[in-house]
Amino acid sequence: MMRASPLSRARGFTLVEVMVAMAIVAVALPALLFSLYQQLDGTEYLRDRTLASWVAANKLSELQLIVTSTGDIPSGELSGEARLADRDWQWTIAQLPTELPGFVRVEIGVGFVDQDQPLHTTIAFLTPANAGQNR
Questions:
Q1: Phi/psi of residue 103, nearest 5 degrees
Q2: What are phi and psi of 98, to 5 degrees?
Q3: Which of 4, 70, 76, 83 lies at 20 to 30 Å from 42 by C-alpha?
Q4: Which of 118, 97, 98 is nearest to 108 (CA)?
């Protein structure tokens, strides 16, 4: 009867193969986690930008209603705070003249209450003659 040699019976991975696999996992896993955290940060930023754009759209609608009811565009810079999605938002409305008589460029900036820079800015052009028709 013939016996199998010890080399033919050995199965499994050598220590070197296991160490190489561990090194690959040790390098790849942190890179994957870093990518995942970046993706989560990007999603949070996009959510905040979307909510800020909704606040700006609401302020533009309110401004259009004011212009429609009074027939005049409020002058000067307006600012205030609004609450949306359990967050407080700071908004500013600035009017700038245009080359066309009767038209006013309106910039609505919205950001977090504790930040100076707006997270989102909406630009619209209004005139008392068609302020309700700018949509």
A1: -95, 140
A2: -120, 175
A3: 83
A4: 118
Type of residue at 35: S
The C-alpha atoms of residue 111 and residue 104 are separated, in whole angstroms, by 23
What is the value of pTM for the model shown? 0.72
Q: What is the CATH number of the domain that holds 56?
A: 3.30.1300.30
- In whole angstroms, give the CA distance from residue 66 to residue 46: 30
Q: How many CA atoms lie within 13 A of 72 on its CB side?
A: 4
- Ranges of H-type helices in 71-87: none
- Tell me: the pLDDT tens digits for 90-125? 999 999 999 998 899 999 999 999 898 999 999 999
Q: Which residue(s) pair with 108 in the sheet?
A: 93, 122
Host domain of residue 22: 13-133
CB 102 within 8 A of CB 129: yes
103 bridge partner residues: none
